[in-house]
Design goal:
It is a single chain. The protein has two helices and 22 strands. By secondary structure, the protein is mainly beta. The chain has two domains: 89 residues, membrane protein fhac (Ubiquitin-like (UB roll), Roll); 232 residues, membrane protein fhac: a member of the omp85/tpsb transporter family (Porin), CATH 2.40.160. The strands form three sheets. It has a 16-stranded antiparallel beta barrel. A three-stranded mixed sheet has the order 1-3-2, with helices on one face. The protein is globular. The relative contact order is 0.10. About 1% of the residues have low confidence.
Length: 419
């Protein structure tokens, strides 16, 4: 038996030994991308045997950055041996940004600018001015591979004044003037391409005061200032998402942990916060795409009316309004059917049917109260997308959602897919 196996083993060893080594890797069509950015996603190494499976995975990794409208590899012979060339077509990554919506008389909008490939290193930066009867400014700087070998950083901030309607205080919806200062600094490390671990600190100061025309509806105790210092840890897994033009398949998961310290002699304790968000995408047919998002979270269940979790048209329930309900725990489920109705090389149109459901635990309430009619809301609706293939994540979105409970609703518009 052993003698019969020896020729087979010898042939296998000869094939492995004969596998040529990769002598060079080059990139064609990268007018903006800095050469130091590619090794974060291209795992094929010079000096190792040519591995076509790994080269195909490298192409997939580059596709999933969403920075390129086309990516493929080719092998070619040189005097020194076999070399690999990645041929890319870069997307336009810098453009105006905006969001907005109208639900009844609740109008808000954001306008600004974003760059998704700053310095050619995959750095994403954005600055937005928001108007909702009062003005706010927010932005972020995300550079997950800035320092090389998987190390990077992220910072988010918001400074401004808005109006926040709170609908879980009494039978009346009360409007508060909100003055907010928020900033965080996070260090990141890439465990794998698009599989990121974050850790850092956060400063958050909120000042709420009833608007002048609401003074008779609630006692002064509902005016409040909160200052928090937080330790933040986040794990974001996007490694299992496959992105091809307007289509997405696979899954992703994001875990967010926070521990807040309130500098108040009466509150010398920690306030934990946990949230997990899972997304799943598949294509039931060639021009269709189904996506679903499940988000669950829990935080300190104190009696504050200004709790951590919210139900908001732009975040989780299309048509419900701008931050109308707050609570200390959340369960949200979003489902979309995206159907491509027009597809060309540079643009695609999608029609969308969606269902959004969210339940919020009221401050100091129990879990059963989450699912009462007052704190759980279901909306369904239709929408449309204009997808520009040569621009990074430039998707013009419009959704109209109606309540399945009372028929109320409105529209939400923005850039990018809803989730």
């Amino acid at each position: 038996m052993m003698r019969a196996l020896l020729p087979v083993l010898w042939m296998f060893a000869s094939l492995v030994q004969a596998q040529p080594n990769l002598v060079h890797v080059e990139y064609q069509g990268c007018n903006k991308t800095h050469p130091s950015y590619f090794p974060n996603f291209v795992m094929s190494k010079v000096g190792e045997p040519v591995d076509t499976l790994q080269l195909a995975q490298d192409v997939k990794n580059l596709w999933n950055t969403n920075l390129y409208a086309d990516v493929y590899y080719e092998l070619f012979d040189t005097l020194g041996g076999t070399a690999a060339r990645f041929v890319l077509r870069e997307k336009w990554t810098s453009y105006p940004a905006g969001n907005g919506g109208i639900i009844d008389e609740n109008f808000w909008m954001e306008l600004g600018w974003r760059d998704n490939h700053l310095l050619g290193r995959g750095i994403r930066a954005m600055l937005l001015a928001k108007y909702y009867d009062r003005f706010a400014v927010r932005g972020f700087f995300q550079a997950p591979y800035w320092f090389g070998k998987g190390f990077g950083m992220e910072s988010n901030w918001e400074i401004g004044r808005t109006i926040e309607p709170l609908g879980n205080l009494s039978d009346e919806v009360l409007d508060f003037n909100q003055d907010r200062v928020f900033v965080n600094m996070l260090a990141s490390f890439a465990l794998k391409p698009s599989n990121l671990l974050y850790f850092g600190v956060e400063y958050h100061r909120l000042a709420y005061m009833l608007r002048y025309d609401e003074e008779l509806l609630a006692p002064d105790a509902f005016s409040e200032v909160q200052t928090q210092y937080l330790l933040v840890a986040r794990h974001h897994t996007r490694y299992h998402l496959n992105i091809f033009e307007q289509y997405v398949t696979g899954w992703s998961n994001e875990v967010l942990l926070k521990t807040a310290f309130v500098p108040d002699p009466a509150s010398q304790r920690l306030y934990p916060f946990f949230q997990n968000e899972t997304k799943l995408f598949f294509r039931p047919w060639k021009s269709g795409n189904v996506g679903t998002r499940l988000r669950a979270g829990i935080a300190e269940n104190d009696a504050s009316v200004f709790a951590q979790f919210i139900q908001d048209s732009f975040l989780n329930v299309r048509g419900i309004g701008n931050k109308p309900y707050r609570g200390t725990a959340e369960l949200t489920w979003n489902v979309e059917l995206r159907q491509t109705i027009y597809d060309r090389r540079w643009v695609a149109l999608q029609s969308v049917a969606f269902f959004d459901y969210s339940a919020i635990r009221p401050p100091a309430g129990d879990f059963n109260s989450m699912f009462t009619a007052q704190h759980s809301h279901a909306y369904a609706g239709l929408g449309g997308r204009i997808f520009f293939k040569n621009v990074f994540d430039f998707i013009m979105r419009l959704d109209v959602g109606l309540s399945l409970q009372d028929g109320s609703g409105g529209f939400v518009m923005g850039l990018g897919q809803y989730f």
